[in-house]
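chain below, 159 aa
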Amino acid sequence: MGIGESSFYNTHKSKKHAYLECLKHYNETVNRKRAEAFFIAPTAALGIRALFKTVLDCLDDPNTPSLVCLMAGSLTHEVLDEPELRQYVEERMTLLADAMIARMSADKQAGVLEEKLDPHLVVPVIITYLQGIWRMALVFYERSRFEGQIDVFLTGLGL
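prediction:
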């Protein structure tokens, strides 16, 4: 991971374990709020839009310590080369994808979403786009521009 061992990391057994604990805490706090935005919305489409709104709200917040989501920042060779970290990141991403697929599938069956929409194809694209937002915000961030792009993206997907 490129982080040297020290007494701080040793208090958490190792740098890998310290990082894993940070990921767990982040998911239990920050990502929980994002997931709630998705799940409390009346439909999957509105939930996905609410999820994107929480990301933009985070990017707008001057108290946000980093413009990169910790999970998005974990998608690097340094992190994913560590089996325990890779397993955790993959599990969390799979959990999100499965929840989104289930919600979209239920809406599709209920006739809320177009019949041609395939949640198994659409959800990975949404997750990839979501990860890309964090990266692009490092280069240039203007909320209104991102909102317009997100709207075009989701509308194009039928959401």
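The radius of gyration is 17 Å. Helices lie at 7-11, 15-40, 44-60, 70-73, 77-80, 83-109, 119-139, 143-156.
thats it, cya
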